[in-house]
Amino acid sequence: MGFFWNIHICSVYPGYPFLPRGIHDFWSRRWNIYIKTILHRIAFIALPKLTGFNEKSNVRMIIAGIFAFFVSGLLHEFMYTVSINRWSG
User: Fold this and answer.
1) Distance (Å, rounded) from C-alpha 66 to C-alpha 41?
2) Distance between CA 78 and CA 87 in Å, rounded?
3) Count of beta carbons in the 10 Å neighbourhood of residue 39
4) Which helix (H) or strand (E) holds 82?
């Protein structure tokens, strides 16, 4: 579609998602790069700046990971609700 408007659109799955070397490679480099980038920016960059917890520690990384997982769950629930027009709870 970008061809018609003369804009460059990046591939959502540029890393051949069906050829991963492991689960980490699949989720961090090959599956839905747009969402991965957005969640990373929100949970691992913006959230620590908002909370003032900028030091790199294991606790910060765990909290950011849980937050990213929570936001991902909300996005999945939203997509499910919109697609079937019903809240799954």
Assistant:
1) 14
2) 8
3) 19
4) helix 58-84
